[in-house]
Write a structure and sequence with these properties.
Elements lengths: L1 E7 L2 E6 L9 E10 L2 H9 L12 E8 L11 E4 L35 E5 L3 E3 L6 H4 L2 H12 L8 E5 L3 H12 L4 E5 L3 H9 L4 E3 L6 H8 L5 E6 L6 H8 E9 L20 E4 L5 H12 L9 E6 L3 H9 L7 E5 L3
Parallel strand pairs: 8-9, 8-11, 9-10, 11-12, 12-13, 14-15
Antiparallel strand pairs: 1-2, 3-4, 3-6, 3-15, 4-5, 5-7
Helix pairs in contact: 3-4, 3-8, 6-7
């Protein structure tokens, strides 16, 4: 089969490698689509992976073989990733106690979905309902990140919210905040294409923070108080400070972005308002089913977010284009079997 292999910093090469075989508790899947995640881009451009790694964790496909112990799937079923068995409470991943998201690329993991075929533990997969296409299902994972962030944000009916960063997770967070009862959802991004999509998806107003003072604009729109809640999904140099400044007295900031370089942070501007900041990472096992239901019930839109569908042979060029400043891409999806 063909797979995109990480060779070194800024280099993916598509090569022929042996087809994988499922173990007793695994399925073998012919990959339909795999969406390119921002975390993949970071590890690619910073070289934070071991050579030989096959990335790709936002995927959908068709089962072509099953291990002898697998009962939940049969050949021909369509499947996508999930979190596994649902258990009570918060299921933190089994990471080391001083785990850093920056170093995740060096943890041992199975080959991912930038390939024509992949194996996966059957318990970590769920079937795709007929109402959801394979292309939509490849975006279940970033949707679930947004679902988790909104659910732990303590959002309240009527809250005025701001999303900083209109990438895939930001646009999903915008939609989830509206579904969760936000009375206003404002979106900030420096890319006009992303802002147009945010408006199409229901943002009440959008801002380019290079052209206006975002903090002043939000304060003015909230009767001089500030927003109730901000979702920091950008990870750009100024956005954490902007988020902390634009919320009201006792306001809340959720940080899901993975900034890999130093960002602005001047506490004297916002400490006096006793704002709260909470990090968000990953998802609960149960939240995958929430995302699946939202897509199945057509409460979440994905089509406006998908900028381009490429073949596996184009993946190196796509990574380079996504990293180019000023590009107009939002979500690029790899069609792994053309």
């Amino acid at each position: 089969m063909k797979a995109a292999i990480f060779k070194e910093k800024n280099l993916l090469v598509v090569e022929d490698i042996p087809d994988p075989k499922p173990k007793d508790d695994e399925i073998l899947m012919k990959v339909s689509y795999c969406a390119i995640c921002g975390s993949d881009l970071h590890r690619y451009c910073y070289g934070m992976m071991s050579g030989g790694t096959i990335m790709g964790h936002e995927y959908s496909g068709v089962v072509v073989d099953v291990g002898k112990n697998v009962k939940a799937f049969k050949v021909g079923d369509r499947g996508t990733r999930c979190g596994g068995k649902i258990t009570p409470g918060r299921d933190f991943p089994n990471f080391p106690p001083r785990y850093s998201a920056k170093e995740r690329g060096f943890l041992s993991s199975k080959p991912g979905a930038y390939a024509q075929y992949m194996t996966a533990a059957a318990e970590m997969m769920m079937k795709i309902p007929e109402e959801i296409t394979d292309l939509e299902a490849s975006l279940i994972e970033p949707l679930t990140v947004a679902v988790h962030m909104v659910r732990i944000s303590n959002i309240r009916l009527g809250d005025k919210t701001v999303v900083l960063g209109a990438g895939p997770i930001g646009l999903f967070a915008q939609q989830c905040a509206s579904l969760a009862g936000a009375s206003k959802v404002y979106v900030s991004d420096i890319n006009p294409t992303r802002l147009k999509v945010a408006l199409k998806l229901g943002a009440h107003q959008v801002f380019d923070p290079t052209k206006v003072d975002l903090v002043k604009e939000i304060v003015a729109l909230t009767d001089g108080l500030g927003a109730d809640l901000a979702f920091e999904c950008a990870g750009a140099k100024p956005t954490l400070q902007q988020a902390l400044e634009l919320v009201k007295m006792g306001g809340r900031v959720m940080v899901v972005s993975l900034a890999w370089e130093q960002v602005d942070c001047l506490p004297v501007e916002w400490v006096g308002r006793e704002v709260e900041m909470k990090a968000c990472y990953g998802h609960l096992n149960s939240e995958w089913l929430i995302s699946l239901a939202l897509m199945q019930e057509k409460k979440i839109q994905t089509k406006p977010m998908i900028s381009k569908i490429i073949g596996l042979s184009e993946i190196q060029e796509a990574f380079q284009e996504l990293l180019r400043p000023g590009n107009d891409l939002i979500q690029v999806v790899v069609q792994c079997n053309e």
